[in-house]
Every structure is written in C-alpha cells, then in structure tokens.
Amino acid sequence: MKSVVDRNFNLMASLEAYVDSSYLQGKTDREIMTYIASLYNGDKSSAYNLYIAPNGIVKYVYPAEGNESLVNWNLLTDPRINVQLQIQRAVQSKKMTVDGPFELLQGNNGLVARKPIYENGTFWGFVSVGLDLDKLLFDSGIKGKGNEALQVAIRTPGESAFYGEDRVFQSKPMLATVELSELEWELAALPQSSVLKSVYQQIGLIRLAYSMVLMLALLFYLYIMRQRNTLSIVVKERTQELLEANEDLTAVNEELTAGEQELQQYTRRLQESEQMLSYLAYHDALTRIYNRAHFQTLLKEQMEYDYAKTSSLVVLFFDLDNFKMVNDSHGHHIGDMLLQEVVGRIQRAELPYHTLARFGGDEFAMLLKDCTGENPIQHLCERLLDLIKDPFIIANRSFFVSISIGIAQYPHDGVTWETLLKNADMAMYVAKRETGSSYTFFNKQMETNSLTKLEMGNHLRQSMERNELEIVYQPQVDCTLGKIIGVEALLRWNHTTKGYISPAEFIPLAEEMGMIVPIGEWILRGACNQMKDWHNRLEQPLAISVNLSVRQLQDERFVDKVCHILEESGLEAKYLEMEITENVAMQDEQVDALRHLRNLGIAISVDDFGTHYSSLSYLKRFPVTKIKLDQSFVRGVQSDDKDRAMIKAIISVANSFQLEIIAEGVETEEQASFLVENGCRQIQGYYFFRPMNADQIVQVLGQSLQPKLVFMEAVTESKNKL
C-alpha cells in the first residue's frame, strides 16, 4: 500500500517543479493541461486526479471527467474543517501535507496531498494529488479476489476503522503499521468465520471418532467375556490396555471440555468488550455524557429532520475560563474532577436542552431545539452562567470558574453541521476575548474578522523580513531632578500598504502565533545597541526599559541570549530594565529566570501594576526593583476619588517594599502635580514627550524641561508647609 501511495504522490514533485520553473507565465491553458495529462499517463498513475490551484482556486484538473466539481473551487474558503486544517498546516509548514480518508467533493472517499507554492516568498497557490480510497485498496491487493479467507480492517490510530470492522482489532489479529507522509494507518487481519467453522467441524469429527473407539472397545470387551474360559489371560491383558486407553480418552475429553468452557468465557468477554467499545464510541469516558462524534452525528440528523419541518436548532459552544490555570496549578486530576462537577451541576439543573456533549479538554457543546427567538436562548445562557458562578468544592478547596458561550442558530448561521459548529466556536472565542463569563451570538462580522486576523498573521510573519517593524522611544522624566533619566523602547509596525497598525492589534496576535519570541529578541538587541550608541555620544548615561513577554521566559536559553546581546552591544547590565506585565501566572522556572536576570544587574519592573493578576504576590515572589503605575488610575486623578486613593495606596506599597515607582500615561499638569506631591517623582507620558525615533531623542535631551515643571514650585511649597 505504501509503495502505491508513494508512487502516486511522487507526481507532486514533477508538478511542483513544472510550476516553479515559470509559475505558468507564458504558458497557455492547453499546454498546461497537456503536460499534466502526459505526467498522469506517462507514469501509469492510478491517482484519482492531479490539479494546480493558483491563489488557492482550482484551475487545471486532470482527468477532467469525474472531477468537474473541482474546477474553480476555492480551497481557501472550503467549508470542510479538515480541509481548512490541512490548508493551514500546508501554509504554515510550506511542505506537502496529506489528509484522509474523507469524503471528496466528487462524493467518493479518498486521500489528498497538497503542497503550497511560493513565488519569491509570497504564496502563489497549491499543487495537489488525489487518490480514490477504493482504488488504492484494490491496487494494494487489500480488496478484490484472493483475500476471501481474511477479514481486513484499517484505521487511524486511536480512531474507528474506516475500512472493515473495529472488532477485527479487538480479536488478536495480525497487525501492521503503514506510514503515509503525515498519516499513520494500522492494518489488522483475521481468518474469515468460514475458516473457523471448518476448524470447529474437524474438532467435532475427532470427538465422534473417539466415541466410536469407545463403542468398539466395549463390544470387544463383551466378546472377550464370552470367551473367558479360553482367553482369560488375553482378556486380562486386553482389559488393561483398554482401561489405559479409556483414561487417555477421558483426559483428552476433559481437555476439550475445558477448552470449550474457555472459549465460551472468551466469547462472553469479547461481547462485553464490544459493548463497552460501542458505549465509549459515543460517550466521554471522564464525564459519561455524549462525545464529539455522537454530537456531530446527532446534529446532522436533526438538521436533516428539521430542514423538512423548517424549525429552528441552536448550538451553544462553551468552555471554562482559565481552566488551564487550574490544571497547571493543581494538577490534571483536580482538573478532571472539576469537569465532572461542572457536568453534574448542569445535569442536576434540568435545563431545557436536547443534548449535552464534551468535545475534549474543557470544551462542551449543547443542542437546543424549537427555539422561537433569542429570548429563550438568552435566558438559558444566563442560567448557565449563574450555575457556574458558585464555587466548586474539590479536595477541601474552593474553585471559582466561569464559562464563555458562543451561539449559532440553524439555518441563519449555517446550513451544514460543520459550519454551525465552527461559527459557534468562533462566537465563543469572541465572548472569551471581550469579557469572559458571557455569551455572544454569531454574526458575519466575526467570520470577516477571523479572515482578517489570518491575513494579518501572514503579513506579520513577513514583517521582519520586509523591515516593517520599528523601535520608538518614550523618555522618562525625574521631576525632582528636572531631567530625562531613561527611555522605554516601544514597538511599532509600519505596514507597507496599511500604514501604522496599533500594537493593541498585533502584539496579542504575535503572542498567539509564537512570534513574540523572535520579535522580542529583535527589540532587545536593537534597544541595547541604540542605548550603547547614545552612551558613547552623551555625557550622562541613560537607562533603557524593554517589555518582556512571559513566552520569552519559557525559553530555557533566554538568560543566555540576554547575556550574549549585552556582550555583543557592549551595554552594561545596570542600564537595562525589563518590564513584565502582571496579567499572567508564572511558573517557578520563569521566576528563576527573572532571578538570574536580576543577579546580572538588570532591573525588573512590573508594568500595569494594580490592574491584573495578584500584584502583591508579584512583589513577594519576584526580584522586582520598580513598579509602573497603570495609566487607568492616572486618568482618574482629576475626577475620581477612588483612583486618587488607589494611587496613594500603591505609592505607599512601593515605599514599604523600598521600590522605585513610575507613572505612565501622564497627560496633564494636574496629573503630574498630584503624582509628585504624593511621592511619585518619575513620570512618563504625553505631558512631557510622545514616543519618538532615535534622532529626536538626541534633540530633546538638549531641551530644557522647566516650562513643563512650573508646578514643582507649588509642590515644594506644599511640602514645606507640612
């Protein structure tokens, strides 16, 4: 089988080389189709089709007969989830990917290999080879004449058999593994029941033969008894022989009886196993509710039934907010118990849903029927949110969790079960991203935003190669000293066609895509080199602050990379400060990395202090030297008593821990005056300077700050009065 697949997939290399040679420029459609036909026929291929898809749209297909539905098909918008996943893997890896078996557009089942083509680093399109599953099995000798004596089954490891029956794998079969590029299949074979029946018939004949021997022996014994006067000695000898033979036959019979009993027990265990497998095929082993496979099957059936009745179905897709934190902090066994408690609470509430299923991890789906409007849906979602709000008591601990719910309605939000689930999932992530512990109805803008996010992600991957990323610097002022004492390095993305893109849009995307690590390293190297250049040109050395992502701390070599960058730039460690954001929980390994950085002499500051995760815990656990007062508090200085009280409290905390404190986002003189008067003399914000390029920094270092520091006279007088 592997040789048949490899022989057909090898056509991909010839097809790719043909496209790479000129990217079809200067070639007519007829020339291209002639080449594909010669490639297909010249290699005596058994492939189902070969095609080329410029920009992801299938344009050239051979053979044309039977593949008409593929022509002008846009792979990038293909509604099938597995196809989209394969497309994403291909685009991300830039390698050939294989998927299958699954139902092709032509209606048959098959395998599809795709390879993305890039022209000068830009996505050009795909080349693809498709195989028909039945023809593959015939060509491999698995189906057809010659295999009538064997029961054969094939499956992907961990999934149900897509050829043959699952029970073959449970009956001590002969096993083999076939690796097909990214795929791995398991083959199992057993003798047919007719062969086993023949064996049982032979056993029956043996038993009959033994019974006949016993009968003949008995007749012979009676005959000897009649002749005892003349053959007494012979009778005794023969009798002894018959007794011994009888013992042997009895032993054989007992063995056969024991074997029969063992076979009956094995058959019973096999039936029990089949029942358990049948149960597990449609139920989640942990929570005992339906699983993804059963929910998808049931949803498809209900959609077909409801289509005829023109009624309404609703899919709710939800998961637990911050469930990963529970697993990481308390262990997976606590996480499993939490999932069981959540399901139990929902079941006991007797909500008016049709089906509840666990899709895996902490993801669940709920099917509603006969919903006449949004009000009943909203009411049920609010009941769900209220159910989960109360704490869960597990191992004598209280766990507070919440859920985010995405809602998709049939047929308004999708006419296929795949689309309905995809859109509900998309709505759930919007709810989670916006507020958490809420529900959101799907709308078309979400789908547009998803495609926009995918496009932005592709552009972001190319931004460093295109030199679109820039570093700007915002000065930090010590109002008491009346001068600039440092700068913060900030990232900007100047897209070649869209202009400057907000960091609030692309920084979370970089975190999600894992690109924040190379980008962060690039910023750190550029900032250190720039600061060392300023040190060489300026009389008074400044410090530079660089934002640090938790993902960078997950790199075991991060500390070594920082040391290398400092050595490479020549910047002393005491002039470098790294800012960590307090919106995530850190593991012990990441805390150790911060301690190593602090031991090198690098300052550690907490950004956005007081707004996110366990602020005081950070000050206790981490080697912090400075805290950065978040601009959300600063903005309320002029109007909110609570913000003013919060600022005073945070400044008091900083003084108690003997830490420096700096306020960011300061935009007015009144804000600056209040902060300095209450003990925060370091200021960063538009009141003094906006972020600027390196040349502008050199210019402002020579400017006087006195016009902006007039308020210091009033602050000094106020302190003297005290």
UniProtKB/TrEMBL annotation:
Annotated compartments: Membrane
Transmembrane segments: 205-224
Annotated CHASE domain residues: 54-137
One annotated Gene Ontology cellular component of this protein: membrane
One MF annotation (Gene Ontology) recorded for this entry: catalytic activity
Name by which UniProt lists this protein: EAL domain-containing protein
Coiled coil ranges: 235-276
Domain GGDEF: 311-444
Domain EAL, chain residue ranges per copy: 453-705
GO biological process, one term: signal transduction
Entry keyword set: Coiled coil, Membrane, Transmembrane, Transmembrane helix
